[in-house]
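Feature request, filed as a ticket because there's no other form

It would be nice if the structure record came with a short human-readable summary line next to the tokens. Right now we just get the raw output. Example of a typical job, pasted below so the devs can see what we mean:
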Amino acid sequence: MLCHGFAQRDGIFAVSKAKKINEHVVRNLRLNNVSLAQTGMRFRNAGEVWNANCGNAFEKTLLLNGLLQLAGFQSKVAFCYDTLKCNGKDFYFPQSEYVTFDWLDQKYELSATHAGKLEPVGKSLNSKLVSVDDNYILTTEGKTLKCSGKKGDVELHQIAEGYYSLTLERPLGVFGMMPGLLVGKRTVPVVCGTAKEMYRYTVTLPKNVRWVGKPIDVTVNKPFGYMQIKMVQKGNEVEVVRTLSLTEAEIPVAQYNDFKAMLLKWTDENYKRLVFAVEN
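Raw output as currently delivered:
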């Protein structure tokens, strides 16, 4: 963001300078079309990108941010999301090509991959909506438990004789992979965009199979969003409902620890695994 006094005093000049820096990074540094996922989360710093005169979207973002800061802007890198295919499924992978700053009480963003007019924050950090409704059916052959879903057979892990675990499909949405990338402390807000993810899983049990577990209701309600994970048995069905809603595009520093803690709960493997026992 711009220092407020600088923005008030030299607003038009400041924005013109920011746009020129943006145009230089976009037009004069070659874009390598390689995502962070493909590089194994390895990337060069701003100085190395400048000397190489090229970089991927994230590396060019680091350079754009560095140049803006050298020019007197207090800018910051904003999260946005790339799509990563894994086993034929789409995952939203946290990445960035945007830098944000304030000007005359309005927050704006610049892209490191395309030049254009300044856009208010949130226009390109579009809300992601993910909705999944899946059904699993368990069957037995003697003491062996099998599982089938909408797309065919589903692998079960035998943890002991007569006991099997089912791992629910990994969340496909924006925040499925993010917590491990979040640092312990922050001195600036996290700009991540809004999101809404809803998952419903139903597991149908035969008469000789029981769910080895207890009803779960993990609910987190914060100013920036809401999360709930529920596991409950209704007759011969075990139902798992997962809901995540982020209503604020920017998470303040004061709420960062709560934000990270919520996402750690959201991705906790214990809330994605069901254990079943085959009885005689």
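Something like this underneath would help us a lot:
Residues 1-10, 122-126 have pLDDT under 50 and may be disordered.
Helices lie at 4-9, 11-28, 46-52, 57-70, 256-266.
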